[in-house]
Design goal:
five-stranded parallel beta sheet, single chain, 175 residues, Rossmann fold, alpha/beta
Length: 175
């Protein structure tokens, strides 16, 4: 699939990426791909817990490639390379770089914790865990020059409007 037909929304839990990805995909007439769900999610966390980074990398790359190929008309990924860089050792990063066009959705740790709590999620839901993850995503986004959208004070419709207004080069000719 040509890279020009892929957009990535990445970020930590509760950052608004799934909501915005769905809205953006509808607007573009594209599909939404969530490569790290279901059985892939189970394998993801199993490999992460056991330190099997090369296996995790292979599973994640396969999921991304498979979904990209299934949606040749255009796809908005809900998680992708930045999620992988946040958990893989730097020795495995080159396979994910250079990244496709990416918007990193970010919310401050308190907002993130409140959103995840409101969804009823309990796994890895502590203020300290969110503070570390938010800092990690922010640092990686800045290091790799990814576009960033702070969704801390934005409702979903406001976030999509902000994306379109603040990041027109990311969206290129599609909007």
């Amino acid at each position: 699939m040509p890279a020009a037909r892929i957009l990535v929304l990445d970020g930590h839990d509760g950052s608004g990426k799934s909501t915005i990805a769905g809205q953006l995909a509808r607007r573009l007439g594209w599909a939404v791909a969530r490569p790290f769900e279901g059985a892939v999610s189970d394998a993801f966390y199993r490999c992460l817990a056991s330190g099997e980074h090369a296996t995790l990398d292979r599973i994640a790359r396969s999921a991304v490639d498979r979904l990209g190929a299934q949606h040749a008309g255009g796809v908005v990924f809900d998680r992708h390379w930045l999620t992988m860089l946040s958990v893989l050792p730097p020795s495995l990063w080159p396979g994910w770089l250079p990244p496709p066009p990416t918007l990193v959705c970010w919310a401050d740790p308190a907002t993130t914790h409140a959103r995840v709590t409101a969804r009823g999620e309990t796994r890895r839901n502590s203020p300290q865990a969110h503070a570390l993850a938010c800092a990690r995503f922010l640092e990686l986004a800045q290091r790799h020059g990814a576009s960033l959208l702070d969704t801390s004070a934005l409702a979903p419709d406001q976030a999509l409007h902000a994306l379109m207004a603040r990041h027109p080069t990311l969206l290129g000719p599609w909007i």
